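#struct-queue
[09:14] JT: dropping the first one here, sequence first, then the structure tokens:
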Amino acid sequence: MGNDEGVSQPALREVRIDKRQVRVLAHPLRMRLVGALRVKGPATATTLAELLGTNTGATSYHLRQLAEVGLVIEDPDRGSGRQRWWQAAHDVTNWEPSDFDDDPDARAAIEWIQGDQVRLLAETADRWFATQHEWSAAWRDGFGMGDIFMTIPPARLEELKAEVWQVLERYHREAESDAATDPGARPVQVFLAAYPLREGLR
């Protein structure tokens, strides 16, 4: 990751997941645990169980499974006695689907994760449609989706994704200062996707 205009910026903690990690991550509650720790920050199993509507025993078990492959870690500054605090080990998880072509189990796991991302997008959109009337005009204009059609070779598509991702990373780095200085700032999730144009439209 490069720097903006020659000024050193803190890099996102990023991991390119391996086959063992992807097998562990491909689980509904584990995906939600990692996501909650990234959004909410360090938490105990009890707090996470309350947040996600599950029980502490299951939460503790799945946190330990994630910790075994380095996707979550204990927060050394918060734990005391029997109470364990957990935090996400990384801010960003990335991969290429072809990373797992030689491992059927890992390939199935990554396909499940990709499907879960699509389900999350659909749920997020449905929730927005149901509640958008509660938001201001500025937020209603800011949220939403758009698309564009193009004919492009795979190498150029990779370049496009990388360039857009650099913009997202810059905004991600600046979000903390935005939240500190603008009382109108709110948590936002941005999805990035590219898929083949369906048959009949090419």
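[09:21] JT: and here's the second one, same format:
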Amino acid sequence: MINRILIRIKVVQMMYSYLLTQEEKSFADAKKELKKSLEMAYRLYNYIFVLMVELTDMQDRRLDAAKNKYLPSEEDLHPNMKFVNNEFIKRLRSSNEYAEYQKENKLTWHDDDIFLKLLLDKILKSETYTDYMSKPGNDFAADCELWRDLLKKVVFIDDDFIDQLESKSVYWNDDLETIGTFVLKTIKRFETGNGKAFMPMYKDEEDSLFGEQLFTKAVLGRDRCDNLINRFIVTENWDADRVAFMDRVVMDVAITEVLNYPAIPTRVTLNEYIEIAKYYSTPRSGQFVNGILNSIINYLKDERIIVKE
């Protein structure tokens, strides 16, 4: 579930933080924090599924309470239970992977009752919900589609939801876009029934080791990477003193990957770190990082220091 795109982002972030705080943060502490950051990304993935279940439960309680009003209406006594009986939510509850993670971690939004009520109100007022409830019958594909649409059109863009995540963990400030994509893919996997729907934290052991290894190699090999960067900053007529610190960090990690991972094509590495630079640094960083890394990669190939596409 935690793919190499997210791992690269986390390594760049940790490298940046570590280099700025070396007097306060040891190398060992930085590695622990990187590991924690990746674990928290997977925790967010599971938290979003718990949110869907608890929103459903809250609506079930509301409908049940309405039946016991002093003067219940006909709608109160015979509510439309389609949302509460959503088949995707039922299968989610019965998923072994969901149950096992919950047993070990006991995730809940119960302490955020006011937030849950407000978010549920927004869902019930949404066009997505209204359209779904107006269609007769039950269809598993439609039940899955409902939650994909609610997440995309209501939950993930809700400012209160984003604020809630930020209050729960400092690690989640930049994770929602990536983790949200994995949640949507997982719902699709439930729908198609292709094997286990829930994604494991890592695809394999190689991916589980990638982050710590890349970070370690980037720290230990930083002088070599900086020498290459400085050489080609001069060659390309850039002002070394005006290079953003984040751009240097991005290039340090990118060069480390190019040098140490022969199975990863240079184009993949280049594209990934250009995008990271665009997002986390300055408006001109993408162009700058692209130019310098291209020059360095061509040099490394010409000198036969790396032999890969």
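[09:30] RK: nice, looked through the second one.
[09:31] RK: The mean pLDDT is 92.
[09:31] JT: good to know. The radius of gyration is 24 Å.
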